[in-house]
Design brief:
14 strands; elongated; 16 helices
């Protein structure tokens, strides 16, 4: 039972995941963001390798071995990683209450939990070693004779390609997250705004406790007479979640070997009209319920299984001998699984099994006064029971709670990934501008404008981001196509989503690099050239 919350899905009686997939998904994304941060460390460490080249040369001349140097650089990386872990603990303590509000949970963090301590140690070790390994091997490989002669290192092609490759990797991940966030949001909005088969607005429901069923006709008449309510009906379930089904139905032409689960709903004659369903064929239940006690209304999905042409007048038999005549067909409506196609439904005209009172307010009616009037009528006819109601549209929106939260968290992760990627890009741009200070000074003296110099310093980074987009587009298409397969009603992935995501990444990168490029372009060339 402890596993039911996260492992609630079963296929053929065997455990088949559940909410645990979201935990695994966000764990993977969290590690991806950590890897982006590690990539930044590698890039900046190798880019600024010249500043430590002389130190490496001197230490090697004095007898330091390569292993000792590698150990030193990885140790420095580990120290930085564990300082980061300590800062992250403080941030967790500060931000956890806000995160709990977002996910509507009460997560706790304590260093007294062995699991939390082990997790922090693992993150610190993995990030320290991962981020420090490449710079350590790279820096320790410098030849002392080259360094001490003053020959500038760090400009070989392999080092440049490695750094560019890492920039491309981190921006590819960022673009994938941007595209995924947009598609998740659009899919949720698509499902929420599609045709439901009923009108969820201005509709409330409450439990038909006490004498509501006994006094139903009186209650209905008095509610309508308030002038704020258009119709009232009883049903066995609230429309968003229909809870009863059976496979004990058959009809002429049905394959006896096939077991078809059919949802069954017990209603009063006003049900179709109150909920705003669309009657496609036949007629509604008559106002006097006893006249249609053996009549049923079915939905379009069931009608298509019974007859390819016209199911009106056909008979459905329930195991036990009861026979029912189909008098009407309503359009398919969405219930239970908001993402799947409508399953077969039978509406029975049978008040004793009803337990939910559904009330439709007039369009444009003041909700507060309508609720007050409803409460007065119910208290007069059903004293002793509290007026506890819910709006159908609010219940409907709650069905998307998990997906909406997934979209919010994906947006936060995408924002974090972009921010960290831009920090790395900002550092690389600053260092590039620093290394090209004299070049920029000479170009300014020769008449180069600020715009020309900014373009010169920015174009290489924009090329890398463009390459990232071309890598990210097919990968994100593949990932999100697989995700969308789980929805019967799904959006098409349109080209503009990829174009907007790519342009957004380009603009963010351009702004990040341009800040440093403009600063370098505006510097006084006299200061950079006077040492010559």
């Amino acid at each position: 039972m402890n596993k039911w919350r996260l492992y609630s899905n079963f296929t053929n009686g065997k455990e088949d995941g559940g909410r645990i997939k979201y935990i695994r998904l966000f764990t993977i994304i969290a590690w991806i963001i950590l890897i982006i941060a590690c990539i930044n460390f590698m890039n900046l460490a190798t880019a600024r390798s010249e500043q430590r080249a002389r130190e490496v040369g001197v230490r090697k001349v004095l007898g330091a071995r390569k292993k000792a140097l590698i150990g030193q650089f990885i140790s420095e990386s580990l120290v930085l990683a564990f300082i980061s872990v300590a800062i992250s603990v403080l941030l967790i303590i500060l931000l956890l209450p806000y995160f709990n509000q977002l996910v509507e949970k009460q997560l706790e963090f304590s260093l007294s939990y062995p699991v939390h301590l082990a997790g922090l140690l693992a993150v610190g070790l993995v990030c320290g070693i991962l981020a420090g390994s490449y710079p350590a091997f790279y820096l320790s490989s410098f030849k002392p004779i080259m360094v001490l002669k003053g020959i500038r290192i760090g400009r070989n092609k392999s080092n440049s390609y490695t750094r560019k490759g890492l920039v491309i990797l981190q921006f590819s991940i960022s673009v994938i997250l941007i595209i995924s966030t947009i598609i998740i949001y659009r899919q949720i909005q698509h499902v929420k705004s599609r045709e439901l088969g009923y009108n969820k607005n201005n509709l409330i429901y409450l439990s038909a406790k006490g004498k509501i069923k006994e006094h139903f006709e009186t209650i209905r008449t008095q509610l309508i007479n308030t002038g704020k309510i258009t119709n009232v009906t009883l049903s066995s379930s609230q429309i968003v979640q229909l809870g009863s089904n059976s496979a004990d139905y058959s009809w002429q032409g049905k394959d006896p070997a096939k077991q078809l689960l059919i949802t069954q709903e017990y209603v009063t004659p006003e049900y179709v009209n109150t909920l705003g369903m669309k009657l496609l064929a036949g007629r509604d239940f008559r106002a006097s319920g006893s006249a249609d006690s053996n009549s049923i209304i079915i939905n379009k999905s069931l009608a298509s299984l019974i007859s390819e042409k016209d199911a009106i007048g056909k008979m459905i038999t329930r195991n036990g001998g009861d026979q029912y005549t189909i008098i009407g067909i309503v359009d398919d409506f969405i219930y239970n699984d908001m993402y799947a196609k409508s399953a077969p439904v039978i509406l029975f005209n049978y008040k004793p099994n009803a337990s939910i009172l559904n009330i439709r307010f007039k369009d444009g009616a003041d909700v507060t006064s309508a609720l007050t009037a409803t409460e007065q009528v119910l208290k007069a006819n059903n004293p002793g029971y509290p007026f506890e109601y819910r709006f159908v549209d609010e219940t409907f929106d709650k069905q998307f709670k998990t997906e909406t939260l997934t979209g919010k968290l994906a947006s936060l992760f995408a924002l974090l990934a972009i921010l960290i990627s831009c920090l790395g890009l900002f550092g690389l741009a600053a260092y590039t501008a620093e290394r090209r200070t004299k070049e920029i000074g000479i170009r300014k003296v020769l008449g180069a404008s600020v715009t020309t110099l900014t373009t010169l310093l920015s174009k290489d980074f924009l090329i890398l981001v463009t390459i990232s987009c071309f890598i990210a587009f097919p990968l994100s298409w593949w990932v999100m196509s697989d995700w969308l397969q789980g929805f019967a009603y799904r959006i098409d992935m349109e080209w503009w989503v990829f174009a907007v995501s790519g342009l957004l990444a380009m603009m963010i990168a351009l702004v990040t690099v341009s800040v440093q490029a403009i600063r370098a372009s505006l510097a006084n060339p006299v200061k950079s050239l006077r040492t010559e």
